[in-house]
Amino acid sequence: MSLRTDRLPISGVNVVLVTAFVVGGLVTLVLGHVLQAVGLFLVGAGGLHCALWARRPSARDVTRLNALEWRDERDRQLGKEALSVVGATALVLSIVELVVVSVLAIDAALWLAWIQLVALMTVWALMNSIVVRRG
Amino acid sequence: MNSKVRELRQAAGLSQAALGEAVGVSRQTINAVETGRYDPSLTLAARLARHFGSTIEEIFDVVED
Q1: d(CA A26, CA A29)
Q2: What is the DSSP secondary structure assignment for residue A55, as one 8-state letter?
Q3: Which pTM was predicted?
Q4: Which CATH class is domain B2-61?
Q5: Which residue intervals of A1-135 are DSSP H helices?
Q6: How far apart are CA A124 and CA A89, in angstroms?
Q7: What is the mean pLDDT of chain B?
Q8: Where are the domains of chain B?
Q9: A71 pLDDT more than 80
Q10: Cβ-Cβ contacts under 8 Å for A30 (sequence gap 6 or more)
Q11: How many other C-beta atoms are found inside a 10 Å radius of the C-beta of residue A104?
Q12: What is the DSSP letter of A54?
């Protein structure tokens, strides 16, 4: 898997992510949820900025990994190593979420989804720092 | 894996960034190869060897465990 597409100003996966936030924001706006739409647009703009920042020739390796802007074979190897831990953590958290939602109420699902997302992002950032120091 | 990349690069008067640019990788990857923290792929090893007009065997030395 290669995240880098030299013809694009950002990687293919970041194009998908930014597009998802923009389209999601537009649909949310049409549905009349202005505050949520602004939130989605801001996150999308932030993601685009991070991707462009990581594409600079002088960008640090951990910056590229955090922004999913892999430049070469070492970035790919380290990125996959970090994401494999994120994948394993996601599996465990998903099982915990399923159990907790089953035991508690459905209303808890939204909060648990947010907690899961924040936990996964934290694990990802930590793993990126660890693999960059090691390799 | 031990390598002579740093030695050859310095002899050629190149910075890590310049060598990285020449062989298509980042400055950090050249640094990781030079310090033994990263074993390059066969493709990158061949590119480095070709760049220095040498062979992979002459540049890289596998350390047996």
Answers
A1: 5
A2: T
A3: 0.79
A4: mainly alpha
A5: 12-30, 34-54, 61-66, 73-103, 108-134
A6: 10
A7: 93
A8: 2-61
A9: yes
A10: none
A11: 12
A12: H
Residue A6, pLDDT > 70, answer no
ipTM of this complex > 0.90? no
Residue where the block lists tokens 């939130």 = A39
Q: With CB atoms and an 8 Å threshold, state whether A72 touches B40.
A: no
Each residue of A11-24: pLDDT tens digit? 999 999 999 999 99
CB of B26 within 8 Å of a chain A CB? The answer is yes
State the count of interchain CB pairs (< 8 A) between A and B.
32
CA B55, CA B49: separation in Å to the nearest integer? 5
CA-angle at A116, arms to A115 and A117, nearest 5°: 90
Residue A121 CB coordination number (10 Å) = 12
Structure tokens at A6: 């030299």
Q: Identify from B28, B33, B35 which residue to disrupt to test chain A contact, counting A C-beta atoms within 10 A and taking the largest count.
A: B28
Supply the pLDDT for residue A77.
94
**Spans of all domains in chain A:** 1-71, 72-135
> What is the four-CA torsion angle of B30, B33, B34, B35, rounded to 10 degrees?
120
Strand partners, B3: B60
Residue B38 has which token pair?
């990263």
